[in-house]
Amino acid sequence: SLVYLNGEMTPLSEARIPVLDRGFIFGDGVYEVIPIYQRKMFRAEHHMARLFRSLDKIGIPNPHDLAGWMALIDKVVAAYPDDDQMVYLQVTRGVAKRAHAFPATVVPTVFIMTNPLVLPSNAVRAAGVSCVTMEDKRWLHCEIKSVSLLGNVLAAQYAVEHEATESIQFRDGMLTEGSSSNVWVVKNGVLYGPPKDNLILEGIRYGLIRELCAANRIPFEVRRIGRDEVFAADEVMLSSATKEVLPVTRIDGQPVGNGAPGPIYSKLYEAYQAAKAA
Ligand code: PMP
Question: Domain of life, per the record (predicted)?
């Protein structure tokens, strides 16, 4: 399969960047993961808007306009055999002599690749997944979709080591998010999510879930959610590009609600599938 790197389409095995790329040296860059259904980007404008915000937040000049980005992504998507894909796109500040502050002149490195879109199986959806809780020890700019992901890497590894699908993080006793997903809690028919501030990444599914709740008359409320509320929830679910919405049925070994995926999850999953097909 072909990837895009700095103006060229090239086989992945031949794509090379210089070792002084600031993505490699400092983790100085941002990225996006965009689901492709039937060769079309899902929520493309939202992903692009978030990319532009991330670039802006760390002062990387945006190397392309919206139409330019869409054309590049379409090129990579068109060169891939599968109709459903997961596009990974990364922009780093570029290549420069190693020094922390921004180089005076530098050209951003742009990399786009695509892979098969692997979604949770029906068996996984029917059972729900297990999560493990942990303290959120990441930095205070989680709203930037930065490639500096060490905190998220350690949180994901913590989940693996505890035989869980995802870690659910808390900062000062309040729910933040997963290692690579947003976390939602249902109590008495209301879907609760934490505020989209600097403590979480605003998933593209954050806005989508809000829309789907409105369309399906599911009450949606944003507020800080305590650890005890997560354990007392009727339902807990995750959202991300590759999980879509996914029910959590065990946390730290304890069942969530009655231990089975709940009705709000089912409604949202159905609505999500309809939105994909629309
Ligand atoms: N939070 C974090 C830390 C993530 O890495 C992701 C996945 N990109 C999300 C939330 C969910 O975002 P999205 O819905 O855009 O996949």
Answer: Bacteria
Q: Which residues contact 257 (CB under 8 A, 6 or more apart)?
A: 233, 234, 235
Residue to substitute in 177, 240, 243 for testing ligand 1 pocket (most ligand atoms within 8 angstroms of CB): 240
* CA–CA separation, 97 and 14 (whole Å): 24
Helix axes 44-57, 204-215, angle to 10 degrees: 140
Catalytic residue list contains 145: yes
Ligand 1 near 181 CB (within 6 A): yes
Residue type, 4: Y
Q: Over its length of 278 residues, how does the chain's per-residue pLDDT go in tens digits?
A: 899 999 999 999 999 999 999 999 999 999 999 999 999 999 999 999 999 999 999 999 999 999 999 999 999 999 999 999 999 999 999 999 999 999 999 999 999 999 999 999 999 999 999 999 999 999 999 999 999 999 999 999 999 999 999 999 999 999 999 999 999 999 999 999 999 999 999 999 999 999 999 999 999 999 999 999 999 999 999 999 999 999 999 999 999 999 999 999 999 999 999 999 99
- Give the CA dihedral 128, 125, 270, 215, nearest 10 degrees: 30
Give 91 Cα–ligand 1 centroid separation in angstroms: 17
Whether ligand 1 lies within 6 angstroms of the CB of 205 is answered as: yes
Q: Is the ipTM of this complex over 0.95?
A: yes
The active-site residue out of 97, 145, 243, 276 is: 145
